[in-house]
Amino acid sequence: xxxxATENLLLQAMGAERASALLPHFEPCDLGLGMPLxxxxxxxxxxxxxxxxxxxxxxLAREGGEQVEGGLIGREGLTGQTVVLGGDRSPHxxxxxxxxxxxxxxADRLREVIERxxxxxxxxxxxxxxxxxxxAHAALxxxxxxxxxxxxxxxxxxxxRIESDELSLTHEFLSVMLGVRRAGxxxxxxxxxxxxxxxxxxxxxxIIDRRGLRRVAGAGYGTPETEYERLIGxxxxxxxxx
Length: 242
Prior knowledge:
DNA binding; cNMP-bd_dom_sf; 8 strands; about 25% strand; about 45% helix; 10 helices; Jelly Rolls; alpha+beta; WH_DNA-bd_sf; 3-stranded antiparallel β-sheet; about 240 residues
């Protein structure tokens, strides 16, 4: 495998010389729906570089069982930023929300590699910075955006990370991601569908009018995507890639 052969944008952007320290340690793996990649409080075993699919970082309340999404990771990045930052475990749940496949590296091996290669570590820290930006804007969205604006933002982010216009998403999953009851998801979905922006079917949402979704999401979408291009050098949003 070489950096040009992978579909992971972060590996592509870092180039063959930086990626050469990682490539011998990668193993391919499938990302099955609901597969946990990191369990709260447990040592992280692998860092995953997705090539297809979408992974969610989910923040869990200490009591009451409440949960909400803290971030999305697809082929633009990697899981296991805690390892890159020098830790070995996270309080958050990281699991697959849209199936796909990835390259993975053992956490202890990644730790050894970046201890020897500080240029590579610095590059991976850029993505850790991007995740902190994304999490901050998720908090802003939950605090300030109306539900249909949150849904539009989240659909745009998923759409950026897959090749299809059709997303495999249930209302139950969306209720967790948006931090609302399923009835609220139904109302927001009907609102966007009524405006001709999406088409919702059982377990699936098709993006019909991306420009319209951006209009609804407003300032809730765009800053993390702009920062990705600035720090990594590749466009994140679909409009900028076309």
